[in-house]
Amino acid sequence: MGATKFRRFFRVVAELRVDDDDLKRYSEFVNEKLTDLLIVGQAAAKASGRDVLMLHDLPITKGLQQCIHAFEKLDDEPDLEPLLADIAAIPPVRAELSDEVRARVPLIVGGLSFAIARTFRIVAPTRSNPTTAEWELVFAVFNLLL
Hints:
Strand order of the largest sheet: 1-2
CATH topology: Histone, subunit A
Distance between the termini: 30 Å
CATH architecture: Orthogonal Bundle
Structural class: mainly alpha
Oligomer: single chain
CATH superfamily: Histone, subunit A
Order of helices and strands: HHEHHEHH
Number of strands: 2
Helix content: 55-70%
CATH class: Mainly Alpha
Number of domains: 1
């Protein structure tokens, strides 16, 4: 059920056809980026003298924020948020996460997902079925920026 919804998400957002290998790659990468965001947020909380990571501690860029808003506006995918919460297992960090951060994690992952899908349109504008090399290129761009 979840794989079908994600396939539809990628099709709606970027006209991409993804397979099970793509979804596995995507899931691992999203978890890696979520971990990165939380680690940087943890450092910001600590620098502010807090043990609790607040939403404003996370390094959410303007572009990612816009993708989060675009994800929230997707009418067709109301059931994706709970699936994203399952995929995005919150990694262990030293700081405690505020309730607001915990509640926003699925939306942050949704924004990352939206950004990943749209990046394929930039990297390979005519491709509908991304190759391994294109996934690696998209991931390299995200690793550079996030």
